[in-house]
Amino acid sequence: MGSRLSSPGPQQRRFAAYIEGLANAAGHADRHTPLKNYCTGLLLPGDRKSVEPMAARLAPDNVRRMHQSLHHLVADAPWDDEEMLAEVRRYVLPTMEQHGPVVAWIVDDTGFPKRGKHSVGVSRQYCGQLGKEDNCQAAVSLSVSTWSASLPIAWRLYLPEVWCQDSERCRKAGVPESIEFQTKPEIALEQIQRALEQKVPMGVVLADAGYGKGTQFRTDLTQLGLQYVVGIESNATVWKPGKQPMPAPTRKPGRGAPPKRLQRSADHQPISVKQLAQQLPSSAWKEIGWRQGTEGTLRSRFAAIRVRPAHRDYKRTEPYPEEWLLIEWPKKESEPTKYWLSTLPEKTSLKALVRIAKHRWIIERDYEELKQELGLGHYEGRSWRGFHHHATLCIAAYGFLIGERNRFSPSARAGHVGLSTPEPPPDFRPRGSPRPPRTP
């Protein structure tokens, strides 16, 4: 029933060895062949990477049997996604580190437009792929990255509150009873804690303002011993350089417990990072290039200053520590476009701050390839298990490509890794594809 490969060259042998390593995480031996077939189907050329069209490409002479095998692996078989992703990481990360050490852990989320209301986690929410609110699913990921490559190592569906409050809907979608509502930053923090437990080589945590705007998320990262460069919104408040909240006033003895909380006054207030940026002298701004793009070096104008965050510090007894505020203000724009807070050391150069802050672009490249080439959003089932199993296997197939690029072939891409199968039957039409016009 397995797929037929072209003459077993070095790449096919490496693929077979890679799948053999992952098979241990899949558990039962009867899952090994379906696992190989599923990952092969994801890596083959083809517009649609859901179960039905993959089955037709892999076994055109017995589509139904192949379909049942692949469907059972992804929708029903109770293997552990986290164990599988750990196996992928153990294979791929050493190939990435041959070209340099881990520099970043990248937190991100991505959306999948969906119709209907039965697919697990689907609701009206912001969808980055569409750039607006719409009906979609969203998942939070953690990726480990060197300067030249990155790999998702954790993946979890974001389950909106409206779902968590509907136990019957969750039961039908197979959501585990242990799953409770968590915000995206809370999911990301769990993924980070697990990566620390697994002793994944540490990097600077990078995240956009959806995560960085939360003081608790940043505080938790610091308590875990991790440095960060995270986006914040323009209305975030800080104290001007060299300023901080006033200490609690002293009180005469015998007049009750002395106050402990920090103070503000009418003429001693923090300001928004946007206001601060607009008050900086022109000498504070420097033109910085951070990496090569398709049309030359990417460049923009930046400033970095040391500030203390001010969010609700009137409820604290100690000021927040100083950290970097990094601001991007392109020359052609009427106001700054991006802001970051960072706990990188005080001696860090502006160029180094910019380079690591801008390194989040690499995860966008990953998502683009995972979606367009490997069918990350093509799964048509509705269950919690199927959603996670399909994504895990997409990441596993992507991991093989990353390993190939780092070890042997920098140009390795899905659809061009030496795997071949028979042509699907000429009359095969996967669900959702347009039917050909009827002949008169």
How do the strands and helices of this protein lay out in sequence?
Layout lengths: L9 H17 L5 H12 L7 H8 L4 H14 L4 H17 L6 E10 L9 E5 L4 E14 L4 E8 L3 H4 L2 H6 L11 H14 L6 E4 L1 H4 L2 H9 L4 E5 L4 E3 L31 E2 H7 L6 E8 L2 E14 L13 E6 L9 E5 L7 H8 L3 H12 L11 H24 L33
Parallel strand pairs: 1-5, 5-6
Antiparallel strand pairs: 1-3, 2-3, 3-4, 6-12, 7-8, 7-10, 9-10, 10-11, 11-12
Helix pairs in contact: 1-2, 1-5, 2-3, 2-4, 2-14, 3-4, 4-14, 5-14
Please outline what is shown here.
This protein has 440 residues and is α+β, with helices and mostly antiparallel strands.
Count of spatially separate domains: 2
State mean pLDDT (0 to 100 scale): 89
Specify the structural class: alpha+beta
Radius of gyration: 25 Å
Order of helices and strands: HHHHHEEEEHHHEHHEEEHEEEEHHH
Q: List the uncertain runs.
A: 1-6
Instruction: Categorize the overall geometry.
Output: globular
Distance between the termini: 38 Å
Strand content: 15-25%
Strand tally is 12
Largest sheet: 12 strands, mixed
Work out the helix count.
Answer: 14
Helical residues, percent? 25-40%
